[in-house]
């Protein structure tokens, strides 16, 4: 409610007293706040945490400030972001798992509750201007289209500007981008040297420079959430090849080197033991020469992506110095979870193929090795390198062992933190960040935001540890849960249970570790201290009830499939008219494992050509287009194309209706876990067949992470044409009609979607 007028209004200005309300002002000395959030970067991956990957900018920030060794996240990206933004446990605010689905329970809506204000919403009344750049992923993806709703997008959650992407991942050379509340095209392309990381840093500099020019007296919050180093791992080719020589020794030796370096740096205690290899990871020496060459290059792409990000971060820090704001800018560098396990035992060059049962042979991987990290790749490294990245921790992202939830945290604030290069070993959690920052600024969390009563914060400020190495860890226990994996930390002890998917929860084996004496979780004390273990398990159930964790749910595929079916409902027809904007993939027609028809209403003259509709990019998708006077359709599955071209030319001069490609009813039925059988794609011109092709390639689990456009191909091209290959005729509309015969392999869909997060 607006503040009541406190002046005096008379008949004329001479009889009146003007009054102006006080504008919001931050407490004296309130810092600017720069949060740099990496994606899927593991505990040991920064140079200052033991890695050989070049991160001199981050290392410099650590040398000018602090490194935390006990910072914990939530094992996944959406969930950690929800906790960081709100200062509350992720289930408690409705983001118990991913923004990609709503499973129908309060803790699993995939959207931050209005009762849980974000840090930006809490700082805005105190004079802060707030800028969000990069990955958001706490808006349901079914709400990511041009009509929103926008109440879960950054501008509705306290940020004044937004430039980035809403999904879990995006192509680094042809990203899905949003400016404020509008989908926009990238300002460059691979051919011109474009990379998303550089673009995001450029935009961050722009937002801060505009702020300094307009409101230098006010502090700002800049939240820079990079796509690095989530798959696809994409970086400059010369930088990728540079790392071939860095990792040729393999992941077993790399783990030992990192652990030795961590002990030398004081990151881990001197007596820290290396845990055994994780499940499904073979010894490096047991792999063939070709396998080792491919694995090394895949790791090189990951390392180069991180190196490249650090180089661009250097530009941002240099700008802060040039602008004279670095001293009173609190810089925080962190990651959202541990290293990803989704590359599997052998890694992937283009995950879009294997996700849809087009498997990559090692021969193919070796033949295409130089494609890794480029615009036609969607690479992810194998489990062995993820294990090495998590050194010395067990398991991976998605799991509640250390490899999933223990992450680096670097803090630098030259004006206030006098420590230089010191370590902090206190336990801290993602939900503790917002309370800490409010504590530093000197403001209390509001009781209401926009008239909505706020939940109490579950996080605890760790401000004291910034200035005192001996400050105690939080006294409050912290639970963990992700896809049925569970854990609880309390007073230096941790109970943790790995949950095999699809098995009864009551059969899960709980382990007990004294983390204060066992950093790497290698000495299970469950048998020695059964009473303590049971006490922690009981406490876990208490915390679960209090934070909306229940019901436990380990389903992958069904939750994604349910959300898609609920979103589309009975809708089977999509009409796309000339003049429309971009359609994100999660709100585009769901043509997976079903028959469908595409009809383009276009006026064609002799010589006209170009894309009528495209969905996806060079790694996966489909497109209907005209070239050389003929109609063509390409179905791209992991870089392998099934193309059909009309046997006759498209007649010119008249309005051509019924230009369509149709995938007829499946010739062979789908097999669970085995693909979809064979499909026939038939081209029709004015209702008459004009060519067909049969192919076993099909969208079984995922079409593409890139969305849909009509009249051109906005990203890396789906087919063998040069993007954007804009249609030169008059395109009126494109209609997609889906048959009611969809038969998804739910578990496969789930595994695919999980790999996107």
Question: What can you see in these coordinates?
Answer:
With 757 residues, the chain is α+β, with helices and mostly antiparallel strands. The chain has three domains: 33-344 and 380-467, Alkaline Phosphatase, subunit A; 478-546, Arylsulfatase, C-terminal domain; 570-756, Jelly Rolls, CATH 2.60.120. It is 23% helix and 21% strand. The chain has 17 helices and 29 strands. The strands form six sheets. A ten-stranded mixed sheet has the order 7-6-5-4-8-1-9-10-2-11, covered by helices on one side. A six-stranded antiparallel sheet has the order 19-29-20-25-26-27, with no helix packed on it. A five-stranded antiparallel sheet has the order 24-23-22-21-28, with no helix packed on it. Helix 16 (557-568) crosses helix 17. The longest helix is centred in the middle third of the chain and has 34 residues, at 289-322. The model is unreliable at 670-675 (pLDDT under 50).
Classify the fold: give the CATH topology of the largest domain.
Alkaline Phosphatase, subunit A
CATH class (first level) name of the largest domain: Alpha Beta
Report the helical percentage.
10-25%
Number of helices: 17
Distance between the termini: 40 Å
How are strands sequenced across the largest beta sheet?
7-6-5-4-8-1-9-10-2-11
Question: Can you lay out the helices and strands and say which pair or pack?
Answer:
Layout lengths: L31 E7 L17 H8 L2 E3 L2 E2 L4 H10 L32 H5 L5 E7 L25 E5 L11 E3 L2 E3 L11 H19 L5 E6 L11 H6 L1 H4 L3 H15 L23 H34 L6 E7 L16 H4 L6 H6 L15 H7 L12 H4 L3 E4 L9 E3 L3 E2 L3 H9 L6 E2 L2 E2 L9 H5 L10 E5 L2 E6 L2 E6 L10 E6 L15 H17 L10 H12 L4 E5 L18 E8 L6 E8 L2 E8 L2 E8 L2 E6 L9 E9 L15 E7 L2 E8 L12 E3 L19 E9 L7 H11 L1
Parallel strand pairs: 1-8, 1-9, 2-11, 3-12, 4-5, 4-8
Antiparallel strand pairs: 2-10, 5-6, 6-7, 9-10, 13-14, 15-16, 16-17, 17-18, 19-29, 20-25, 20-29, 21-22, 21-28, 22-23, 23-24, 25-26, 26-27
């Amino acid at each position: 409610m607006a503040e009541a007028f406190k002046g005096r209004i008379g008949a004329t200005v001479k009889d009146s007293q003007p009054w102006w309300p006080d504008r919001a002002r931050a407490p004296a000395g309130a810092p600017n706040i720069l949060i740099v959030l990496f994606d899927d970067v593991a505990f040991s991956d920064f140079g200052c945490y033991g890695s050989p990957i070049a991160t001199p900018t981050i290392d410099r920030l650590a040398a000018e400030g602090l490194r935390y060794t006990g910072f914990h996240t939530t094992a996944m990206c959406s969930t950690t972001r929800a906790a960081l933004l709100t200062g509350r446990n992720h289930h408690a605010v409705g983001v118990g798992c991913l923004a990609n689905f709503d499973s129908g329970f309060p803790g699993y809506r995939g959207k931050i509750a209005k009762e849980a204000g974000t840090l930006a919403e809490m700082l805005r009344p105190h004079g802060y201007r707030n800028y969000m750049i990069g990955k958001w992923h706490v808006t349901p993806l079914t709400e990511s289209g041009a009509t929103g709703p926008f109440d879960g997008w950054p501008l509705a959650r306290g940020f004044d500007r937004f430039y980035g992407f809403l999904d879990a991942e995006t192509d680094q050379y042809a990203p899905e981008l949003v400016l404020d509340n509008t989908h926009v095209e990238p300002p460059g392309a691979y051919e011109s040297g474009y990379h998303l990381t550089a673009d995001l840093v450029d935009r961050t500099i722009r937002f801060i420079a505009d702020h300094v020019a307009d409101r230098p007296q006010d502090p700002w919050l800049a939240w820079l959430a990079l796509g690095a180093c989530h798959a696809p791992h994409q970086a400059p080719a010369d930088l990728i090849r540079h790392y071939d020589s860095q990792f040729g020794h393999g992941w077993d030796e790399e783990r030992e080197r990192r652990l030795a370096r961590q002990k030398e740096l004081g990151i881990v205690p001197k007596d820290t033991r290396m845990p055994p290899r994780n499940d499904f990871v073979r010894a490096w020496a047991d792999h063939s020469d070709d396998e080792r060459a491919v694995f090394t290059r895949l790791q090189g792409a990951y390392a180069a992506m991180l190196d490249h990000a650090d180089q661009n971060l250097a530009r941002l820090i240099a700008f802060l110095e040039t602008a004279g704001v670095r001293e009173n800018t609190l810089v925080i560098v962190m990651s959202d979870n541990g290293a990803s396990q989704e590359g599997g035992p052998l890694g992937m060059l283009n995950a879009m193929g294997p996700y849809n049962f087009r498997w990559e042979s090692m021969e193919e991987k070796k033949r295409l090795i130089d494609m890794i990290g480029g615009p036609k790749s969607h690479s992810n490294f194998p489990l062995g390198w993820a294990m090495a990245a998590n050194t010395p921790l067990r398991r991976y992202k998605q799991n509640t062992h250390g490899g999933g939830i223990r992450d680096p945290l670097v803090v630098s604030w030259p004006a206030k933190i006098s420590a230089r290069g010191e370590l902090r070993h206190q336990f801290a959690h993602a939900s503790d960040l917002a309370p800490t920052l409010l504590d530093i600024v000197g403001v209390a969390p509001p009781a209401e935001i926009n008239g909505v009563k706020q939940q109490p914060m579950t996080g605890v400020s760790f401000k004291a540890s910034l200035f005192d190495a001996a400050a105690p860890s939080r006294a409050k226990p912290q639970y963990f849960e992700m896809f049925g994996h569970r854990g609880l930390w309390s007073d230096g002890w941790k109970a943790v249970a790995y949950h095999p998917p699809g098995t009864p929860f009551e059969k899960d084996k709980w382990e007990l570790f004294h983390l204060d004496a066992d950093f790497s979780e290698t000495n299970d004390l469950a048998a020695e201290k059964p009473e303590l273990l049971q006490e922690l398990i009981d406490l876990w159930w208490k915390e679960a009830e209090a934070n909306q964790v229940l019901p436990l749910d380990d389903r992958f595929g069904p939750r994604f499939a349910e959300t898609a079916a609920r979103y589309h409902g009975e809708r089977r027809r999509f009409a796309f008219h000339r003049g429309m904007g971009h359609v994100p993939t999660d709100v585009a027609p769901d043509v997976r494992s079903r028959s469908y028809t595409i009809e383009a209403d276009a006026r064609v003259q002799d010589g006209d050509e170009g894309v009528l509709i495209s969905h996806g990019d060079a790694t996966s998708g489909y497109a209907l287009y005209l070239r050389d006077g003929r109609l063509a359709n390409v179905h791209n599955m992991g870089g392998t194309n099934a193309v059909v071209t009309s046997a006759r030319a498209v007649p010119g001069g008249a309005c051509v209706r019924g230009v369509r490609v149709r995938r007829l009813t499946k010739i062979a039925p789908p097999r669970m876990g085995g693909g979809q059988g064979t499909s026939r794609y038939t081209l029709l011109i004015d209702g008459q067949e004009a060519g067909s092709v049969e192919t076993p390639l099909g969208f079984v689990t995922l079409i593409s992470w890139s969305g849909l456009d009509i009249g051109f191909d906005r990203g890396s091209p789906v087919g063998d044409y040069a993007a954007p290959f804009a249609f030169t005729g008059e395109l009126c509309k494109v209609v997609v009609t889906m048959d009611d015969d969809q038969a998804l392999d739910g578990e496969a869909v789930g595994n695919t979607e999980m790999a996107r997060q």
